[in-house]
Each structure stands twice: as structure tokens, then as C-alpha cells.
Amino acid sequence: MENKSVDVIIPAYKPGKEFQELLARLMRQTVLPGNIFILQTVEDGEELLQFSEEHIKVVPIKRAEFDHGGTRDYGARLSEADYILLMTQDAMPKNEGVIEELLKGFTGEHVGMSYGRQLARKDADITEQLARLYNYPPESQLKTRADLEELGIKTYFCSDVCAMYDRRLYLELGGFVHPTIFNEDTIMAYRVIQAGYGVYYAADAKVIHSHSYTCMQQFRRNFDLGVSQKEYSEVFENISSEKEGAGFAKKTIFTLCGKMHFLKAFYFAWQCAFRLFGYKMGKSYDRLPEKLVLWCTMSPWYWSKD
Fold it and tell me: pTM here?
């Protein structure tokens, strides 16, 4: 992958002090990015981030215009690099080989995108650690259309927390869908695979990223997940997410019980009920009153769009 250029695109909203460390780690990579485009969502009167480095470019995005797919697509079209690396503002590179390892995924034939491994933070709850291990195992994997029968929805699983795209193919396939409340990365993976290309999971491209959601946050997050699957039913209608979710829940509960974490197993099961209820309501969002939708969602900004 010599002489292949990479640009990094990071949507940012009120980033914390760790953001500077994220940028510093990107500039210590074995393969350096050409440009880092920071798509800063700003409200009226809010100042833009300032950087002296010429290759770090801050692009303002009005709060009312932010969209998970649309904003990232805007950033992708600012780049002229061979590859674009999408990241989030809270994803911290674990080592200096993240970009290099992601690029290795494209050495095989017909690979359209690659994504990295997410590791839980040191202070993360054991359930979050198990979730990261379940979704991001230590072995790399190439996923193609031939894996649909065995892997189901996980064939399309990926995450723009840390994902690299072949920019030429990305543009050929139309870029990220928008507007979208969730799943722009999964929908793009679906397009890549349906076009006959592969999605590569690069287990050695490690970033530290995890959350500690409450039951209601899980409910709202999965409500938005259900909404996205309803709105883009052509992607999800023939593959069940519920089966995959049930498998994850069962394995996690058994693991927690095996480690004698019975209270955590009970709480996790309770969280799963919130997740499932939120997901089911999201799939039926078009039959719900507007006020209830706004109460259920994690993304109220999405519903104010025309």
C-alpha cells in the first residue's frame, strides 16, 4: 500500500480535553494522514477550534444541519485522498499502527472498507468489556456476501468509530445515506458487500472506545436503531437483528453467572429488556405520536429536519 494517501474525518461536538490527545496520537502513526478534517458542530456564537497545523482543517457544521450520514458524507467529499478514515471524537488510538493495519485490509482483492477493533476503557463495567469482546474479537476477518448465511446481520457489522473506506468505491456507491438517525456505516457496508466487495475487520487496528449507558439510554439508543432499520428496510428486512441480539444476551448472562456476577447478570438482563422494548418501538415509530417519539429518541435533532 505504498504511496496511498489517507485523510481522517472526525465529526466533533464540544470535544473534551482528550480530543487533543487523539489528534496527537494520529500524528504519531506509522502511516501519517495527509489531512484531518474536523467537522465541528457549532451553535450560534460558538467559536471554532483553532489549530496551528495546516493539515488540520476545521469545518463548521450548523447544529440544525448535522446528520450522521450527511455530515460524514460532506467530510468525505472534502477529501481527495485514496482512502478516508472515519473516526469519532472519543475513539483513542491504542497504538501507532492503526492506520497501517486498516490499510492492510485493502491488500486483498475487492475490499471496499475496513474497520478497527474497539477496546473497553480501563474503568468500563464488565458487561461493557464483554460487549466489546463479543463484537470485536482478537482475530481479523474478511466478510463477503458468501458469509451471509452463516453470519447474518453481522456480515454488515462495522463501525464508523474507526473505519476506513476506499474513497473511489465510496463515491461510486453514492456515499453515506442521509438523512439517517443511525447505522450509516452498516448501510454502507451492505452496499459494499452487495456490490461484490468485502468488508475487512482489522483486529490489530485498536482504538479505546466504550460507553456506560443507563437503562434509559439503552432504550433510546435502540429506539434510534429500530427507526433506522425501519427507514432502510431494504437492508434489514431479510436479516434479523433480534436473533443476533438474543445470542449476545445469552452468552453475556452465562459468562457473568459463570464468574459469580449474579447481580450484574440480573441488571444486564434488565437492560436487555429496555433495549428490546426500545428497538420494537423504534420499528413502529411511524405509528407513534410525535411527542412520544421525541421522548423515546436519543437524537431529537433528527426529527426537526424537513
Answer: 0.93
